[in-house]
Amino acid sequence: MLEVELPYPPSVNHYWRHYRGRMVISRWGQRFRDQVRNVLARMNVKPLTGKLAVSVEVFPPDRRRRDLDNLLKAIGDSLEHGGAFHDDSQIVWLLIEKASVVRGGKVVVRITERR
């Protein structure tokens, strides 16, 4: 099992930007990807293989209304980019839960291999 604490991610609405007629990852999205990659590198994480179950516990930075599902794209893509697994298509079970407010926000991700 892999358990990792990550900074609060950008929503899908802020993860992508139009640039010269193309969709690209925004600066905020790139920064988040780099932060995730650095966290995983410090933990010396090797990519998980096979089918995966992923649990995401979201600790928002404040009490504003947010759509939890808008956070999943940045989290999944960044974990893949950082080497937690080979491809986010490996995820066969996914749970996302809103937790209490934490200054600055964060997410805790737990990934286990499934048979």
Describe the structure.
It is a single chain. By secondary structure, the chain is of the alpha+beta class. The protein has a single domain (2-114), classed as Holliday junction resolvase RusA (60s Ribosomal Protein L30, Chain: A). 27% of the residues lie in helices and 35% in strands. The chain has three helices and six strands; from the N terminus they run βαββαβαββ. The strands form two sheets. A four-stranded mixed β-sheet has the order 1-6-4-5, with helices on one face. A hairpin with a 2-residue loop joins strand 2 (16-19) and strand 3. Helix 2 crosses helix 3. The radius of gyration is 14 Å and the shape is globular. The two termini are 13 Å apart. The model has no long low-confidence stretch (mean pLDDT 93).
